[in-house]
Predict the 3D structure of the following.
Amino acid sequence: DGGITQSPKYLFRKEGQNVTLSCEQNLNHDAMYWYRQDPGQGLRLIYYSQIVNDFQKGDIAEGYSVSREKKESFPLTVTSAQKNPTAFYLCASSTQRVENEKLFFGSGTQLSVL
Amino acid sequence: QKEVEQNSGPLSVPEGAIASLNCTYSDRVSQSFFWYRQYSGKSPELIMSIYSNGDKEDGRFTAQLNKASQYVSLLIRDSQPSDSATYLCAVNKFTGNQFYFGTGTSLTVIP
């Protein structure tokens, strides 16, 4: 089945530690995104990538880093510089064809601080 | 000014009633509009997309778009308890292919 796979489902970070969230898609989508969701808030864009080896900062990129070495993969690293990382992280992908650019989501990763 | 605004609710309707969810957007260049349903602890699920003015129906769901008023709505007919969720409105400004989300409206359907 085609889809977006995020792992792990739950992740715990210790103080000063970097952690990496995995996102893999087999939908052959060009664009991939990372969003952060806090309770009672909407989705806020962290980073997005429209093509391999290229990515752009979203609204809340500070304390995060990404890479896009393969079309299928877009991992997100939450660095120790992100002081309030506890949130639900969502990876998404879309085509870039006009009027077919629907956004599809993975199942999410809940990150908590120990 | 936020790109997308929604009433946070909560909105409560009795089972079988019509639920009406509203959304406004700030940028006239927005081209594509979406409604997502999100259950607690789960990821958003696309339920409707609309690209031109007017109504678009899919089963019990109807999306309405008015670009002149920068307004998009979602009607849920014959509401069921399983429709209880948070509904997110999203817009896409094709330039840059960025999706902007509202904060969501919480809907509760009372049996």
Q: What stands out?
A: The mean pLDDT of chain A is 92. Chain A touches chain B through 26 residues (CB under 8 Å).
